[in-house]
Amino acid sequence: MDEVKRVLIIDDDKHISELLRLYFEKDGFEVTSGYSGDAAMPLVRAVAPDVIILDLMLPGMSGFDVMRELRRESDVPVLMLTARSDTLDKVVGLELGADDYILKPFEPKELIARVKAVLRRSRSSLPGNKEESGAKNDIVSYPGLVVDRIRYTVRIGEEEIDMPPKELELLFFLAARPNRVFTRDQILENIWGMDYYGEQRTVDVHIKRVREKLDVIEHPLWQIKTVWSVGYKFEVKDDGRL
User: Fold this and answer.
1) Which residue range forms the structural domain that includes residue 196?
2) Are residues 111 and 173 in the same domain?
3) Does residue 241 belong to any structural domain of this protein?
């Protein structure tokens, strides 16, 4: 029997929160609601949700501030709600670690479908869902970089760094296929899955975040390179592979 999934809804519009509660409970979810940014983190710690629906425009802490604090503690999937179609809002939210977003007004059934897709992607990214056999195929190494998809760790230089599952999967996907160019659509399909509702900008945002973490050391033998008008590749010089 499938485990009941817990969803935390943070939205100051009580009408929307109650409507979503009805739809989620009908679909078998356990629902907790909060109505301000200040209520978000205490509820996250108390409920340990499997997924969070987070409005950006909140009294108290903004949704952006909640995301910043949340990502210091947890990689729980987050789907943002925003009443504005401003691309900057979407980009900032994704840069802060949101997994998807949806514009208000929305169809509750579409939101639930997106939540299920986020949960599937999150579940498939867990270390325990990777086969333990053939461990060599789940580790890529370059000078100053080791990406381990079994233990879900990334070592840069002498330090092990924190990297959320999607960033690690993206880095591993490219690094395991050196010098091969992938389009944004190919990356979305392989990392986020066919059921991802978002846009290609998601790839750019995650690439930027991965690069910032890699750039804590000099790495002249390898780099994530932008291939203009096409996509990205993990470029490796002839002597850069261990």
Assistant:
1) 132-236
2) no
3) no
The residue-averaged pLDDT of 215-234 equals 92
- Ramachandran angles phi, psi of 54, nearest 5°: -125, 115
144 and 116 belong to one structural domain: no
> By C-alpha distance, which of 155, 156, 137, 161 is closest to 217?
156
| Residue 149 shares a structural domain with residue 91 | no
- Tell me: the pLDDT tens digits for 183-195? 998 898 888 775 5
In a domain, residue 1? The reply is no
CA nearest to 198, candidates 209, 182, 215, 184: 184
**Rounded Cα distance, 153 and 108, in Å:** 36
**pTM assigned to the model:** 0.62
At residue 218, the 3 state secondary structure works out as coil
Question: 184: domain CATH number?
Answer: 1.10.10.10
Token pair, residue 9, equals 């809804």
Amino acid letter for position 175: A
Same domain, 16 and 112: yes
User: Is 239 exposed, middle or buried (CB count within 10 Å of its CB: 0-12, 13-18, 19+)?
Assistant: exposed
What does the alpha-carbon distance between residue 182 and residue 180 come to, in Å, rounded to a whole number?
A: 7
Q: For the segment 117-159, what is each residue's pLDDT rounded down to a tens digit?
A: 888 766 655 444 444 333 457 889 999 999 998 788 899 988 9
Higher-confidence position of 28 and 237: 28
CB 140 within 8 A of CB 198: no
Going from the C-alpha of 88 to that of each of 92, 149, 158, 171, the distances in angstroms are: 6, 32, 35, 24
Does residue 12 sit in the same domain as residue 94?
A: yes
